[in-house]
Write a structure and sequence with these properties.
With 136 residues, this protein is mostly helical. The chain contains 7 helices and 3 strands.
């Protein structure tokens, strides 16, 4: 990933509604979530949410697919991985012990689908700790 692409991705997330929308979409993988449902969950007018989703989409962080009258949004995990990797590419500089705690913290708490309920319980590694309760 180029520096300007990383800046665009992180800039898209540097706003509270967009961050909440992105995290809401992450929580609805792998099925995705309709734009209107994101609006409802976050209590944001649909036209406002549409603008936020367009910014996230232009940054490559989410993708959309029309299903009948609905537009379903999904996370572009490859782009997210590239952005995170861009930040960490020079992390260790030959000292992996420096980055080990950081890498451990970004490993998802629930890789298998059946462990998803463990995250919802308020596990200390729950990445959703500051998402509005209505989203959980």
């Amino acid at each position: 990933m180029e520096k300007l692409d990383a800046i665009e991705a992180f800039a898209a997330l540097a706003q509270t509604t967009r961050m909440d929308a992105f995290r809401t979409i992450v929580m609805h993988e792998p099925d995705g979530i309709a734009a209107g449902e994101v609006s409802r969950i976050l209590n944001v007018p649909q036209n406002t949410m549409s603008t936020h989703l367009a910014i996230l989409s232009r940054a490559g962080l989410i993708s959309s697919e029309r299903q009948g009258r609905l537009i379903i949004y999904r996370v572009s995990f490859d782009k997210l991985r590239e952005a995170i990797s861009f930040l960490l590419q020079d992390c260790c500089v030959g000292h992996p012990d420096i980055c080990a705690p950081l890498i451990g913290d970004i490993i998802p708490c629930c890789t298998p689908r059946d462990e998803f309920q463990n995250c919802k319980s308020g596990d200390a590694t729950d990445i959703r700790h500051d998402v509005p309760d209505a989203v959980r």
